[in-house]
Amino acid sequence: QVQLVESGGGLVQAGGSLRLSCAASGRTFTSYAMGWFRQAPGKEREFVAAISASGGRRDYAGSVKGRFTISRDNAQNTVYLQMNSLKPEDTAVYYCAAVTTRYLSGSWYYQKGSYDYWGQGTQVTVSS
Questions:
Q1: pLDDT band for position 27 (50/70/90)?
Q2: At a CB cut-off of 8 Å and minimum separation 6, what does 117 contact?
Q3: CA 12-128-66 angle, 5° bins
Q4: Could you tell me the CA-to-CA distances from 70 to 1, 32, 43, 48 in Å, in that order?
Q5: 45 in Cβ contact with 94 (< 8 Å)
Q6: Eight-class DSSP state of 42
Q7: In whole angstroms, what is the distance from residue 121 CA to residue 26 CA?
Q8: Model confidence at 48, in pLDDT bands (50, 70, 90)?
């Protein structure tokens, strides 16, 4: 069982930056690949980024590639999402998620149904 708690959301102007954190409980954090998803009002929850258990592989949605960076600190049981050059269309509730596999391969990790554990979400609002 893994519990995930996100933090770091807030209100920022377009062009600004935020760093989201997701703290995981438990002693098996290195057994999990991690993902970030987001959900805007009236829209489906969508994939943002994923990172393998070791941190050696990362992948991003096209809409955030080059602006967002996912990373993890396995000693601190924490995964991060650094968000730069924010746009109003990045406004959403951001969720982190964990899946009981170490590796990213193929495209399964783009699907929200592939993840086993979810945090409660943190609101990110980007004003124009």
A1: confident
A2: 1, 2, 3, 4, 32, 97, 98, 99
A3: 70
A4: 23, 14, 23, 9
A5: no
A6: T
A7: 19
A8: very high
